[in-house]
Amino acid sequence: MSAASEQAGQTTDAPVRLGPGDIACSRGLATWLSTHQVSLALSSYQTGQLFLVGVKPSGGIHFHAVGTNRAMGLWAEPQTLILATANQVIRFENILEENQRIGDADKYYVPRVAHTTGDLDIHDIVKLKDGSIVFANTIYSCLSTLHPVHSFAAWWTPDFISKLAAEDRCHLNGIALRGGRPAYVTMVSRADVVNGWRDRRDLGGCIIDVRSNEVVTENLSMPHSPRWHQGKLWVVNSGTGHLGWVDTASGAFQEVCFLPGFARGLSFHNGHAIVGLSLPRDGSFKGLPLDDELKKRDADPWCGVQIVNLDTGNVVEWIRFSGVVKEMLDVCTLPGVRLPSAASPTSPEVSNLRTIASSAKRVEPA
């Protein structure tokens, strides 16, 4: 990707080509993934890549890049991936049976359904128990569902948003499920004017209870990726660089650890948090406490993933990108998957990936 196209925020459908120095991993990452029987799925907004991270039969780390037209919010299950892109929501399905392999891959995800939404700047996306999809419609400042005719149907709108307009008023970006239903959302501010959140990046970030419309807390800085996990409301306070949880009674934010980058994307597995990190877009985190936090620690910002032990707050394993990959948008786990792979929606191989459902039965006409 040229420097000019990167600065313009353009994306590419082609898999990004990583050179020998463009990616580094902690020495124990492969062992950690194998021990915890999990793989990772990462979306990289600015390069448009879906990265799948697993372990080779030889024991080394395997990275697979899938080109998309911007890779945004991501929902992952062992059999299904749901990815928001620049103008579509794409559902990938694993086509391999339990003992089948394509190369070394034990899961191979193929794009099966693409719902065209137009550009909604979709951040978090979740699948409910009934199979329906709800997403953070950031452009329109609401939670939305897919619609068979229109770009979306509004599912929930904050009570301070006076009008559905493509103005990214409050930068509503995150969804926390509780009991299988959207329970909490994050937003950068409670602004009700076009791009109003940009004037409130340092403080004013809030979490709202979807069920009651009550504000849980409003003293955060650019919060993202709320998650209800083991009885706590976790969130990344992206503007300060801290992972922590919010006391839903008092609204107090309890810091667990500092992460050296713009944190966005959060998943949990076996007592650990997996968090995505991004570099600043303009070379600095101007106007954010994160800038001072990095200076205080004499640290450079990261792009990549860090795995945090929730008991100690220590980073136990990590992935670090350099070169063309500068931003992560979402991070998901794939429990029970050793080496995932996938086909790009625009790749030539999709034309020849024809599979027949083995459980299909012929139905005779009445």
From TrEMBL:
InterPro entries documented for this protein: CHP03032
Region: Disordered, residue numbers: 343-366
Transmembrane segments: none
Chain intervals with Polar residues compositional bias: 343-358
Occurrences of domain Conserved hypothetical protein CHP03032 (ranges): 29-341
Protein origin, superkingdom: Bacteria
NCBIfam families named in the record: TIGR03032 family protein
Protein's UniProt name: TIGR03032 family protein
Species the sequence originates in: Pseudovibrio denitrificans
